Amino acid sequence: MKNELFYEIIEKFKNRKTSIEIKDIIDKALLYLENEKNVLIEKILAICLIELQDYKEAKNILLKILEDYNDDAEAMNAMAYLYLKDGLVDEAIKFLLDALYLDKENIIIKDNLEKLRNAKDHKIFFSMTKPKDFLYLNLPPLPFSRNLRLWVNSLLSSMYGKVILGVVILTLLAVIIYVIYPYYINWAEDYRFKKGLGRGRVTHLEIKDIEKLVEERKKYNMKLSEEEIKKKFSMIQVYLEEKKINKATITINELLNSNASEMVKERVLIWKDFIFKLENPNQIDYMPTVQEVLRAPFLYENVYISWGGTVVNLEHKERRETVFDLLINFVDNATVEGIAEVHIEGFQKLSSNDKVYVFGQIYGINLDNHILVKAISIQKLK
Length: 382
Prior knowledge:
By secondary structure, the protein is of the alpha/beta class. The chain folds into three domains: about 1-135, Serine Threonine Protein Phosphatase 5, Tetratricopeptide repeat, CATH 1.25.40; about 160-195; about 205-380, CATH 2.40.50.140. Helix content is about 55%, strand content about 15%. The chain has a five-stranded mixed barrel. A hairpin with a 5-residue loop joins β5 (about 355-365) and β6 (about 370-380).
């Protein structure tokens, strides 16, 4: 409470303009000094009394301050003003010299002293000098919390301020919603799944013939004859010239995973650098089936696909990435031809059970035999 009143007095003293405001400062200063001695509040009180021309009471306060603190340059400067008012110029100059001795770099004291010495008529000089021009106090800064509150209050006191504050609040709300919305979607999907309100989370689905496909994968052997190696190597160039990127990529993967010599594989890797990126599904020359990929996933690394299916297990990783499982071709209620784990950059406006086409590249397979796809674009089916 004391601190609050102390800073309220400081704030009002800094912004005082009318005699009513000065009287209010005097009342608050007297209230404060009833409970606690504070030399700064006493000096504020004295200056306010001077501004209301209660010189006698102001002088008594300043003399009492100088009894207790004989090195107070601010009080000495104020005493010089009172002696100047009484026409005692020499005494006023003496107080100013003493104050300047204590505070040698004080510009206000130097300016007061110079003007007083150069004044031809000291009465005219006094009558033309306002207390605010002669007197000074080094006031402490207001706490940040109080400055913030004052700033908000000043904004709220004007129509423009209210509009600006409203815009700021709406902007902050928009930013907060923007940031937390992905988390809300994730929470909502989990909640619906736990309450049995939807099929957004799918954990028990079989992939058609997966055991058979995995066995075939284990036995898959890329042992090629020299003639086959030469033919496939020459076909890479043909596919690239014809812009058949998927066939070129599959052939490169075949040779890299075959019994071809290291020299051949090094030359194959050079061809790999010539493969350009596709920008839309219409450029795909050959579309592998899910079963083909599950049978030999290493042959289809970096191959482009455009698969349709149903979105489940949707998760937004902040706004950096959207991840979901794509259920491809339901065979029955518990079986699908395949599941692709789709990753795409950014926040995608998707919902569970959306029917979509995913255009992207295969980059592997996980332990659950879900094909890993890095999506380039996603198109909802109407």
